[in-house]
Write a structure and sequence with these properties.
With 437 residues, this protein is mostly helical. The protein has 4 domains: 144 residues, no CATH class; 31 residues, no CATH class; 127 residues; 95 residues. 69% of the residues lie in helices and 0% in strands. The chain contains 27 helices and no strands. Helix 14 packs across helix 16, helix 16 runs parallel beside helix 18 and helix 18 runs antiparallel to helix 19. It is elongated and about 115 Å long. Its main location: cytoplasm.
């Protein structure tokens, strides 16, 4: 019996199970009394037998189908059902339909439900649970309680794709094509999450970085564009002042798409907030933590934001202190700043070069050494004077940055030559000889 039952469960396809069930019944369930034996088989199916992955993928007879067949032996009523299931009246008569026999089978089937504990494996509960689900669908259809065919279609597509396809072919008018895309994901990204950001208190959202990452990981580029537009319209705000630093620092561990998406949203909210100071402070911290060889998405996002802002002294120092591994990031930012706010950047440079002759001044010289000679900063007379004064106080500075101070020296020579050849040398007036006496 054990071998044949294993054969039915592991080797018999679902569509051919009926014939083998009759064969098993004729072999082992035709001898009275069989009530206790059926209960033992139910417990064996629920607890002992666990189908392999190969059997599940090959659509072998599921365990809940065997339970339904054994339960039907106790509940079948009509002669037609008896004849189709048992093939003989003798076999049917051996299966008692007394209340105690039915209760014994049900108790064996739901024993793990009645005596549930945390250490009961879920596979012990799965056959009876699946039997309830399949029976519930049939019962709803029978009593006419199902208003929509969608649950039935989803059930058939998952558990019986062949029958689901046949139903779809028979009733094409009832199977309208769904709109493209995932409606649930789109609703969550464009409605639910923005509502949370707009109305939920900060105390209820301690892990904003996790929520932002989950949002971007499932959002499509179209959804991300719509979120950016709504941020520009100030419908909601995603990055509060005390949270944006944590979000941006956490994003350094995300994948490329997630980093790109978060910087798109940050740029939109940055524009809507008119370049607030909290975001500038967060950018300084991210610049100090990122690796330019690894976090290209973050570096590109920071570059796009910095070129839109007028720097303060803290941000200016942060950019000037970047190592050579960031090149040409500092020079590009400094060049844009010199075009947009030349007076501000010029005053910062002069203050650092004249008042600080230590590492800050060397950092400024290091960045100016990489600038093209035509840049407006290198043409400014105050900056040149401050650089020459720095060389006069410490001659080794000129040796460390030969390109920069070579340009200054050549410019000074050109100025001197121009001034020397600008006006002709005044000739002494000719004196006539005194008249002879």
């Amino acid at each position: 019996m054990h071998e044949q039952l294993r054969f039915v469960l592991d080797k018999v396809a679902h569509v051919s199970a009926h014939r083998y069930q009759k064969w098993f019944q004729a072999s082992f369930l035709h001898v009275q009394p069989s009530d206790g034996r059926i209960a033992d088989i139910v417990r064996f199916v629920c607890v002992v037998h666990q189908p392999t992955n190969q059997a599940v993928e090959a659509k072998m007879t599921p365990r809940y189908h065997i339970l339904g067949w054994l339960l039907l032996l106790k509940y079948a009523r009509s002669d037609a059902t008896r004849a189709s299931l048992l093939h003989s009246t003798d076999g049917w008569r051996c299966c008692s339909k007394s209340p105690s026999a039915k209760a014994r089978v049900l108790h064996a089937m739901f024993f793990d439900f009645f005596n549930y504990s945390q250490d009961v494996p879920v596979l012990h509960l799965e056959p009876a649970m699946m039997l309830l689900v399949s029976a519930a669908i049939s019962a709803l259809i029978k009593v006419g309680m199902m208003r929509n065919l969608v649950p039935l279609v989803d059930y058939l597509h998952e558990f019986n794709p062949t029958l689901g396809k046949q139903c779809q072919d028979l009733l094409p008018a009832h199977f309208n094509a769904r709109p493209p895309g995932n409606v649930a994901v789109e609703t969550t990204c464009l409605r639910v999450v923005p509502y949370l950001f707009q109305h939920a208190p900060a105390a209820y959202m301690p892990r904003v970085d996790a929520l932002v990452r989950a949002l971007i990981s499932v959002a499509t580029p179209t959804m991300l564009a719509k979120l950016s537009m709504r941020l520009l319209l100030k419908d909601f705000s995603m990055f509060r002042d005390h949270q944006i630093t944590n979000v941006l620092l956490s994003s350094l561990q995300w994948n490329s798409w997630e980093q790109w998406g978060v910087w798109e949203l940050v740029a939109s909210e940055w524009e809507a907030k008119k370049k607030d100071k909290a975001t500038v402070a967060a950018l300084r911290k991210v610049l100090a933590c990122l690796d330019p060889h690894t976090h290209g998405e973050a570096l590109s996002g920071i570059l796009r934001l910095l070129v839109q802002v007028t720097p303060d002294m803290a941000l200016f120092h942060c950019v000037m202190k970047l190592s050579d591994a960031f090149d040409p990031f500092p020079c590009s930012v400094l060049s844009i700043w010199s075009d947009k706010a030349l007076a501000t950047v010029q005053s910062f440079l002069v203050v650092v070069l004249r008042e600080n002759h230590g590492k800050d001044a060397l950092d400024v010289c290091r960045q100016l050494n990489k600038m093209p000679p035509t840049n407006a900063l290198l043409q400014d007379s105050d900056i040149r004077a401050a650089l020459l004064s720095l060389v006069g106080n410490d001659p080794s500075t000129g040796e460390s940055f030969p390109v920069l101070f070579g340009q200054l020296a050549s410019a000074a020579d050109t100025t001197t030559a121009t001034s020397s050849h600008g006006d002709p040398v005044a000739k002494k007036p000719r004196l006539d000889p005194p008249p002879s006496l």
